[in-house]
Amino acid sequence: MPEEKQAGEERLVKAIDKGMGNRIHIRLSRFHDRDYLDIRNFYEADDGEWKPTRKGIAVPVELYGELMDALKGAEQMIKDLPPAKKEEGKE
């Protein structure tokens, strides 16, 4: 039987380094008995810990399929960008 997640539990899926002490954290979290995919900016605090900012979004897991469809559409649009625009997005 799968382990029941407790309220407030978070599991890091991936941390993407943005440079200059900033990251994007993709996490699975539970809040008020609902599961979310949380995509949020984090910064490295003076004590070396990674702390969340208010910049981000918590998507209910029920909407995961729709989110992935939208990201696939965005991926195709990115592929269709002129080369200069693609390079700007890598900064």
Polypeptide structure, described:
Mean pLDDT is 89; it is low at 1-5. The protein has one domain: Roll (Transcriptional Co-activator pc4, Chain A), CATH 2.30.31.10. By secondary structure, the chain is an alpha+beta fold. It has helices at residues 64-79, 83-88, and strands at residues 10-19, 22-31, 34-44, 50-60. The chain is flat, with a radius of gyration of 16 Å. The protein has a four-stranded antiparallel sheet with strand order 1-2-3-4, with no helix packed on it.
Rounded to the nearest angstrom, the distance between the terminal CA atoms is: 44 Å
Number of strands: 4
Number of helices: 2
State the CATH topology: Transcriptional Co-activator pc4, Chain A
Uncertain runs are 1-5
CATH architecture: Roll
Broad structural category:
alpha+beta
Text of the CATH class: Mainly Beta
Write a short abstract of this structure:
24% of the residues lie in helices and 46% in strands. It is of the alpha+beta class and 91 residues long.
